[in-house]
Specification:
One of its GO terms (molecular function) is flavin adenine dinucleotide binding. This is TRXR1 reductase. This protein is α+β, with helices and mostly antiparallel strands. It folds into 2 domains: 58 residues, no CATH class; 118 residues, FAD/NAD-linked reductase, C-terminal dimerisation domain (Enolase-like, domain 1, 2-Layer Sandwich). 22% of the residues lie in helices and 15% in strands. The protein is elongated, with a radius of gyration of 20 Å. The relative contact order is 0.12.
């Protein structure tokens, strides 16, 4: 049983209405623009109370740091709320960065995307004889932008560690070609991203026979 308690945005009783800051009356979240500015120009909001943003501590820290640099340091850098690596730490971890496939389709159009995917078998699973088609990896590429990777997903052991490393590459403009040119470390789970060659659109079988 998974209980996702979540967080409440306790914004209704702190005087925001006095200065005219608008909130979402249903959930208390605060709508902001891409610079974390509310409808009142001199009031900014960061973190879990933002409407439509991720409720993650590192995101709030990054957004706050960049906001301070813009306000007082002459910077123009904004927080990237898309390429945020995150992980669900269930017994078999799930990690992702960038767009899920459905949102990527909404953003770029299905005809402009190529999705590569595969099942894989971690080496440490071979001795106990665990199912060799439980772990899964997928990348979503924008064909109109040199096959840039706009979404990366992995279900398998240590997915958090794997995702963190690829997140940095995605911030640097990772493309499918660069992944193909990267020499994998054998035998690791992350290696699977350097050997993907089956697209979802092809309908080819992605089951694995070995590690």
């Amino acid at each position: 049983v998974l209980i996702a308690v979540g967080r409440d945005a306790c914004t209704r009783n702190i005087g925001l209405q006095t200065i005219g800051v608008k909130i979402n009356e249903k959930n208390g979240k605060v709508p902001v623009n891409d610079e974390e500015q509310t409808n009142v120009p001199y009031v900014y909001a960061i973190g879990d109370i933002l409407e439509g943003k991720l409720e993650l501590t590192p995101v709030a820290i990054q957004a706050g740091r960049l906001l301070a640099q813009r306000l007082y340091g002459g910077s123009s850098r904004k927080c990237d709320y898309i390429n945020v690596p995150t992980t669900v730490f269930t017994p078999l971890e799930y990690g992702c960065c960038g767009f899920p496939e459905e949102r990527a389709i909404d953003e770029y159009g299905e005809q402009n995307l190529e999705v590569y995917h595969t099942l894989f078998w971690p080496l440490e699973w071979t001795v106990p004889g665990r199912d060799n088609n439980t772990c899964y990896a997928k990348i979503i590429c924008n064909k109109q932008d040199n096959n840039r990777v706009v979404g990366l997903h992995v279900l398998g052991p240590n997915a958090g560690e794997v995702t963190q490393g690829f997140a940095a590459a995605m911030k640097c403009g990772l493309t499918k070609e660069l992944l193909d040119e990267t020499i994998g470390i054998h035998p690791t789970c992350a290696e699977v991203f350097t050997t993907m060659n089956i697209t979802k659109s092809s309908g080819q079988d992605i089951t694995q026979k070995g590690c």
